[in-house]
Amino acid sequence: MNRNSILALCLTALLCSCASEFNSVYKSADNTYKYEYAKQCFAMGKFSQATALLSELVTVQKGRTNAQESLYMLGMSQYCNKDYEAASATFRKYFSSYPKGDYAEQASFYIGQSLFQSMPDPRLDQSSTVGAINAYQNFIDYFPDSPLRETAQQRLFLLQDNLVMKEYLSAELYYNLGGYFGNINANTESNYESCIITAQNALKTYPYTSLREKFSILIMKSKYELAQNSSDERRIERYRDAEDECYGFLNEFPESAECTTAEKFIAKCKKVTGD
After folding, report:
1. Residue-wise over 90-122: b if at least 16 C-beta within 10 A, else e?
2. What's the whole-model pTM score?
3. 212-231 confidence digits (pLDDT tens)
C-alpha cells in the first residue's frame, strides 16, 4: 500500500470518527455538554455543526445564564455559514429579546450586515436592500458612539447606490424603449415621459448621487425626443422646455462629454421656436 492510500485511509477514519462524535453529542440529553461542544465547534470554524446544536439549545436555554450567548452564537454561526436570511432573523430575535444584553450592539449591527451580504442585483427586487438600510439606520440611532458606526455608514452609502442604480436602469430602459407603445400606462404619454419622471424622482430622492449627470443626460435627451414626437399644439412648448433643460445641463455639467449634444439640441430647438 502506497503512502497516498495510507493517508486517504487515515483521513477517512478521522472523518468517520468526527462524524460519530458529533452524532453522539447531538443525541445526548446533556445540554451542558452540548453547549460546550457547540462552542468548541464555533471556535474551530465548524459552523454547520454549531448551528445544528445551537438551534436546539436556544429553546432549552431560554431564561438561563447562557441564553444570550447561545442565541448570539447561533446568529454568528449562521452568518459565518453564509445563511444570511436566517442570521438576520436570529440577530433580530436577540435584539428584541435582549435590547440591553451583552451582545446587543453587535446583534443590532449584524441585522443589517446579514441583509447587506445578500444585497441583490439592482435589476431585482430590493426589499432586502431597504431592510438593510433600515437596520443600519436603527443601529446608528441606538449606538451612535459605536466603533462600528463608520462601517454602518459606509454600508448605507453602498446600499443607497444600489437603489439609485435600480432607478437609473429603469429610466434608461424607458429611454431605450423610445416610441414603443406596448408598455405605456394611463399616467404617461410615452416612454420618454416615463423616463423623465423616473429620473427626476430619483434626483429628488437622492440629490447627491454620483449618477446625477447620467440622470440629467437621460432627462435632457428624453425632453428633446418628446418634443420631436409631440402633437402640433404642444410642440413649441416642449421644444422650449427641452431648450431650457439643455441650458441647465450646460450650467451644471460644463465639462461633460455630452455638452456638444446639448448645444446641438439648443440650435435645433431655436429653429423650431424661432427664439
Report:
1. bbbbbbeebeebebbbbbbbbbbbbbbbbbeeb
2. 0.78
3. 999 999 999 999 999 998 87
